Automatic annotation (TrEMBL):
It comes from Phytophthora palmivora. One of its GO terms (cellular component) is endomembrane system. Keywords: Membrane, Transmembrane, Transmembrane helix. Residues 8-153 form the CWH43-like N-terminal domain. It comes from the Eukaryota. PANTHER family: EG:22E5.9 PROTEIN, FASTING-INDUCIBLE INTEGRAL MEMBRANE PROTEIN TM6P1-RELATED. The keyword Transmembrane applies. It is found in: Endomembrane system. This is CWH43-like N-terminal domain-containing protein. InterPro entries: CWH43_N, DRAM/TMEM150_Autophagy_Mod. The lineage of its organism: Eukaryota, Sar, Stramenopiles, Oomycota, Peronosporomycetes.
């Protein structure tokens, strides 16, 4: 299971990065309109084919892999916490939190494709974005707290010295326990830093602490003036008789650029967080022993 969890985490990170990079490269090479932003919102990368196909298939694969990653992580947490519960080291409430992080992580993962879809209605897009970020936030905070509790259990075992050191063996039990403690601490610190960065990115992207004005739609006349194609402006992207579905970020470009970067930051920190599960590989081997 340790190997499956590592493979799922690596596959999630690789697929997500490749999907976004390829979609961005396609948008740049095809001169796709992104509202004047240097780094666009992910939904704008998937507005026109073939970038839309790349994002659709790529993010659906990422959603499945991310769900599997959370599931494999739950399996590890469940085994360790069950043993700690039997030993009286944690309460049943703490034990049940592993289910909370898994459920929210898996459910939130499947909001990712809708969150990044340009064709979704504004209401659906906003709600899916809020749902995805909220679910993953709950999963990450809960999982990080569980890792902190596991760290406390491991540290208490080291402090109590309830193990025997075999000085004649190839590896002493004390060294194994120390390796477990270091692995848990390393994973916890990585996850704590990711949660902090992720939270800041979410606050900026949504936005939470400031009033972010919605960008106006690009008019059909402006669209044609930008030489995006008359049929594209008057038919494909037509919203009404005056406006297109395209967003014009240039009137408040600094705010929208920061929000677009914050959106990217949310994805990157979530990917980095999932990779932190690999940090427990050494410690997990000893659980099986």
């Amino acid at each position: 299971m340790s190997r499956l969890r590592a493979i799922a985490a690596l596959a999630t990170a690789f697929t997500a990065l490749v999907t976004v990079i390829v979609a961005f490269a396609i948008a740049r090479s095809n001169h796709v309109y992104v509202g004047g932003l240097v780094w666009p919102f992910i939904s704008d990368l998937g507005r026109d084919p073939p970038g839309s196909y790349v994002l659709f298939f790529g993010l659906n694969i990422v959603a499945v892999l991310l769900g599997l990653t959370w599931s494999f992580n739950h399996e590890y947490k469940h085994r360790f916490l069950h043993k700690s519960l039997e030993n009286g080291q944690i309460s049943r409430g703490v034990y049940s939190l592993s289910y909370v992080s898994c459920i929210f992580g898996v459910v939130g993962a499947f909001g990712l494709p809708v969150f990044a879809s340009f064709n979704a209605s504004p209401t659906l897009h906003y709600n899916s974005a809020f749902g995805f970020l909220l679910c993953e936030t709950v999963a990450m905070f809960t999982n990080t707290y569980l890792n902190y509790r596991i760290f406390l259990v491991k540290r208490s075992e080291m402090d109590a010295g309830v193990f025997i050191t075999d000085r004649y063996g190839p590896r002493s039990v004390s060294r194994i326990k120390l390796g477990e403690l270091q692995a848990v601490k390393r994973g916890f610190l990585i996850e704590f830093s990711c949660v902090a960065l992720y939270t800041m990115c979410v606050i900026v992207y949504l936005p939470v602490l400031y009033n972010g004005s919605e960008a106006p739609h690009l008019t059909i006349a402006q669209c044609i003036a930008l030489k995006l194609g008359e049929n594209y402006c008057t038919s494909t992207m037509k919203l009404d008789d005056v406006y297109t579905k395209l967003w014009d970020y240039e009137k408040d470009i600094a705010v929208h650029q920061v929000r677009a970067l914050a959106q990217l930051g949310c994805m990157l920190t979530l990917i980095r967080y999932s990779l932190s599960f690999i940090a427990y590989k050494t410690e997990e081997k000893t659980i099986k022993a």
